[in-house]
Each structure stands twice: as structure tokens, then as C-alpha cells.
Write a structure and sequence with these properties.
By secondary structure, the protein is of the alpha/beta class. The chain has 8 helices and 7 strands.
């Protein structure tokens, strides 16, 4: 029927938009999008996280950071002591490879996936949230960049078209971790519409 053809065309268009998208997320939320749609990881930001100041630097200049050399350090500027995962350094930002066994694996995957970043900026998506010490000033700074295809989740009631409020317990310091947040966040916005380039459509 005519209606079925229209639905098929819409679904095909949404699938075409999703192919080869590059998601720049501050934690594991983005990886879950790729897994949901069975898409290749067209971003180096998989299995890792950034602290807010570093992430804000990254999203303002992805071309420079993703083309710069990745090195490693044993100490972070954000906390005392050693960690069991590799800590990368790209220029002046730290990359916390939380789900990697060693520096060799982290560098191989980072370098390979940096080459997959889509050069069509209409297919680059940005996601931020209030974890890892991000405060309202960090959230406002991200939202005020007005990056295309951007979304921000937090426990704060912020009036901005790209912000989605996630209700949390009163004593929660932030939203839940990126993996869990992916599934919770779908209750509050239309993921398909966002990936189709239609902005943040709240449920």
C-alpha cells in the first residue's frame, strides 16, 4: 500500500543517515548507539571517557586532536595515584582508556578509528553529560557551543533545545554511567529522530 511504501522510505532514509555516523561522546554512551544499530565504530571514542575540561577542548577542535599524536602517561592531572588502565595524552587533553588492557591496544584502536571519522559534519554527533565532575558551568559551556547534532543529559533542569533532563534521586551527584544512561535516556528523547538529523525530540 501507499502507506507501507512511505514507511519503508522513511526507515530507509533513517538507516542511510545512521551509516558511518561519528559520535563524539564523553563516555560509553556512544558505543551503545553503534551496538544498537549494528554499525561500525566510526569514531575513536569507544571504551573510554574524558573529564569535562578535556572533552570541551576536544569537541571544539576535533580535526586537530584526532590528527595529533597519542602518547601515554602514568599519572592523571585529575586524581592522585595510578590506575589499572592506560591514560592517553593528545596535546593538552587526557584520554582515559577505561576498557583497554594495555597501551598498545589503546593506541592501535584509537589510531585506526581516528581515520574513520566522517568528514561530512552532518554525520558527526556530539553527546555530553554531567558525570566525572561536570558541573552546570561545564554543561552550559557545551550547550552554548551550539554544536550541530549535539545532545546533553543531566540531572539539572536546564532550558535549552539540546538538553534532556534525566530525573535522579535527590542525593545523586550526576546521571548514571554511560552504558546504563543509554537505555534510560531513550525514555526521554527520540534517538532515531536525533540520528536522522532532526534535533532533540523529547518524549
Amino acid at each position: 500500500t501507499q502507506n507501507n511504501r512511505i514507511i519503508h522510505i522513511r526507515r530507509s532514509g533513517a538507516q542511510n543517515m545512521r551509516e558511518h555516523i561519528s559520535i563524539i561522546a564523553n563516555n560509553c554512551w556512544g558505543a551503545e548507539v553503534y551496538k544498537r544499530y549494528n554499525l561500525p565504530f566510526s569514531t575513536p571514542v569507544i571504551g573510554l571517557y574524558f573529564y569535562p575540561d578535556c572533552f570541551l577542548k576536544l569537541v571544539q577542535n576535533i580535526d586537530v586532536y584526532f590528527k595529533s599524536e597519542l602518547t601515554f602517561t602514568k599519572r592523571s592531572n585529575y586524581f592522585e595515584g595510578a590506575v589499572s588502565y592506560p591514560i592517553g595524552v593528545v596535546k593538552d587533553i587526557e584520554v582515559h582508556f577505561l576498557h583497554y588492557e594495555n597501551e598498545e591496544e589503546a593506541k592501535e584502536k584509537w589510531t585506526k578509528r581516528c581515520l574513520r571519522i566522517n568528514q561530512d559534519r552532518a554525520k558527526v554527533f556530539y553527546k555530553f553529560d554531567d558525570r566525572d565532575g561536570a558541573n552546570k558551568a561545564h554543561l552550559d559551556a557545551f550547550l552554548n557551543l551550539n554544536l550541530p547534532n549535539s545532545i546533553c543529559f543531566s540531572k539539572y533542569a536546564i532550558s535549552h533545545p539540546n538538553h534532556v533532563f534525566i530525573p535522579m534521586e535527590k542525593d545523586a551527584v550526576s546521571v548514571i554511567d554511560g552504558l546504563k544512561l543509554f537505555y534510560v535516556s531513550e525514555r526521554f528523547f527520540d534517538l532515531d529522530a536525533w540520528l536522522a538529523g532532526n534535533g532533540v525530540v523529547r518524549r
